[in-house]
Every structure is written in structure tokens, then in C-alpha cells.
Amino acid sequence: MTTRGRKRLVSLGVSLVVAGLGWYINQHPSVTKTLVENIPAGSYKVVEFVDGDTIAVNMNGQKETIRFVGVDTPETHDPRKVVQCFGMAAASYTKQLIGNNPVRLESDPLSTNRDRYNRLLRYIYLPDGKLVQAEIIKNGYGFAYTSFPFTKSDEFLAYQKTAREQSKGLWGSCTPQENQYGGFTSNPAQ
Q1: pTM for this one?
Q2: Which residues of 7-32 are buried (b: 16+ CB within 10 A; e: fewer)?
């Protein structure tokens, strides 16, 4: 067989395999879900829950750490601090709230793109449109983080005020201390 004949035979074989695979996938839609994740454009799969205010997502094949703009949850992993009151609950709440959902990320025009640890600073939206930061603050799992400017600061402070008045979450279980920046921190775990 000539070189040209072998190339044609290989090309025909590859074409048959591709066509057969296409036919099989059409006949078995569940395979498509396995082969291609069903994540809307502009959304990302969460690959790690770091703590209550930080996640990692798969961004174009790279693991990217995302710090939530405008919210601070009690610490669970900071090597310089002890685990803070409600820290584990806040981390669990964030994980439960997001679940297996893809998330949409949005930057804030008043915020920097990254923090000093090189984490992307973003608002986190669920497929139903809920803003994760707002849910965390409304339910008392975190504080409005006003040390840096962001457009939703008044909104987040209002959610915090309501949660505090209603003794939701950490406001009823911990004794938050006001810090030097006018925000709050949680006391050590009790």
C-alpha cells in the first residue's frame, strides 16, 4: 500500500470513530453531561471552599482563589489567629448556600481587582440571582467589611444592622468586638 493510501485509510478510520462517537452521544444524552459540564457562560465551578468568605473556582482550567467583596466571616484558617466564634458555622453556611451550583463573579468598580494575597475580589452570585455576600450578612454569618470602599457598603451595613438587632447567627451566639476600622471581629471560639 502506498503512503497516500495509508493516509486515506487512517483518515477514514478517524472519521468513522468521530462519527460513531457523535452518534453514541446523541443516543445517550447522559454521556453529554459527563463529557461537558453544564455551566452557563460567565459562571464558574467551585472547586474548593476555603472558609466563609473565600472560595476557589475553576477559571479556564486554572484554580483561582476568590475573596468575597464586602463581607468578612470569622476566621477558621488564619495561622496568626485562633479559630473565631462562629467561624466553622460561617464556613459551613457558605458551603451549604453555594452547594454544587456554578457561581457568577462580578467585580466592583470601587474595589481593587486583587487583594494583597493575590486573590480576586468579587461579588458572588448564585444561578437564582442571590448575592452570596448579602445572604451571609443577612443571616448573621459575617460582618459588612467596610475597611475598603465598595459600592454595596450601605446595603451591607443595613443588612448587618438588621441581623444584629434580631440577634441572628453570630450576633446571638458570640460577642463581636468593634475593631479600629469601625468594623467587627469575632472573639475566639467558645
Answers
A1: 0.75
A2: eeeeeeeeeeeeeeeeeeeeeeeeee
Domain ranges of the chain: 3-35, 43-185
**What phi and psi values does residue 2 have, to the nearest 5 degrees?**
-80, 165
Beta bridge partners of residue 143, listed in sequence order: 72
Question: Does 14 score more than 90 pLDDT?
Answer: no
Which residues are catalytic, by number? 67, 75, 119
CATH number of 43-185: 2.40.50.90
With beta carbons less than 8 A apart as the criterion, state whether 66 and 120 touch.
yes
Tell me the three state secondary structure of residue 92: helix
* Residue range 107-162, pLDDT digits in tens: 999 999 999 999 999 999 999 999 999 999 999 999 999 989 999 999 999 999 99
